[in-house]
């Protein structure tokens, strides 16, 4: 049996990088309506658990989140997000009762310091390029990239002309 332990942190300010993948990496999110549905459930989950979402990207077969769960149990956050998206998909008839749309587990990484935080944010925003969905991060509207542009953290053309190399990041 595989030994598996969740990351634990005593600090409510701990940041966690999460990757949540669809079952068999099926590309379930393919239309703007799909992406908007996921965004809506993300927002409701954020409000329900009173947590911060620092960065995010929704791709056809997985979601990346950088969160500060505060006092919330982040496993419950992920469970709620998965359950909420599944319930919405059932409601609109995309899936039937009993269908599984998610991998059983998810990947998590506790952010260690500011450099690690930057690596996670860059990885999240460059991920649509990595997966050949677009040629530049600014072309993918289903991420928090433009919030970082608006705050002056990125220039709009960040990642356009050359591949971004995120050292030590194997988050997919």
Description:
- This protein is α+β, with helices and mostly antiparallel strands and 172 residues long.
- The chain has a domain at 16-118: Alpha-Beta Plaits, CATH 3.30.70.
- The chain has four helices and four strands.
- It has helices at residues 32-49, 74-91, 114-130, 145-150, and strands at residues 16-21, 52-59, 62-68, 107-110.
- The chain has a four-stranded antiparallel beta sheet, sandwiched between helices.
- A hairpin with a 2-residue loop joins strand 2 (52-59) and strand 3 (62-68).
- Helix 1 (32-49) packs across helix 2 (74-91).
The CATH topology name of the domain at 16-118 reads Alpha-Beta Plaits
Poorly predicted ranges: 1-6
CATH class of the domain at 16-118: Alpha Beta
**Spatial strand sequence of the major β-sheet:** 2-3-1-4
- Which percent band covers the strand fraction? 5-15%
Give the overall average pLDDT: 89
Radius of gyration: 16 Å
Distance between the termini: 23 Å
Secondary structure: helix percent = 25-40%
CATH architecture of the domain at 16-118: 2-Layer Sandwich
Global shape: globular
Strand pairing plus helix content: what structural class?
alpha+beta
Q: What is the string of SSEs from the N terminus onward? A: EHEEHEHH
Tally of contiguous helical segments: 4
């Amino acid at each position: 049996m595989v030994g598996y332990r969740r990351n634990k942190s005593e600090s409510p300010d701990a940041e966690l990088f999460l990757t949540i993948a669809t079952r068999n990496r099926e590309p379930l999110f393919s239309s703007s309506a799909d992406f908007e549905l996921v965004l809506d459930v993300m927002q409701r989950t954020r409000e329900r658990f009173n947590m911060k979402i620092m960065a995010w990207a929704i791709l056809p077969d997985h979601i990346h989140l950088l969160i500060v769960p505060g006092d919330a149990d982040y496993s419950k956050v992920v469970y709620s997000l998965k359950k909420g998206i599944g319930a919405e998909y059932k409601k609109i008839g995309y899936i039937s009762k009993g269908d599984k749309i998610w991998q059983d587990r998810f990947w998590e990484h506790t952010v260690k310091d500011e450099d690690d935080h930057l690596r996670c944010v860059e990885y999240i925003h460059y991920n649509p390029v990595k997966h050949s969905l677009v040629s530049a991060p600014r072309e993918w509207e289903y991420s928090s990239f433009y919030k970082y542009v608006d705050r002056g953290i990125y220039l709009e053309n960040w990642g356009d002309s050359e591949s971004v190399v995120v050292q030590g990041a194997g988050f997919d």
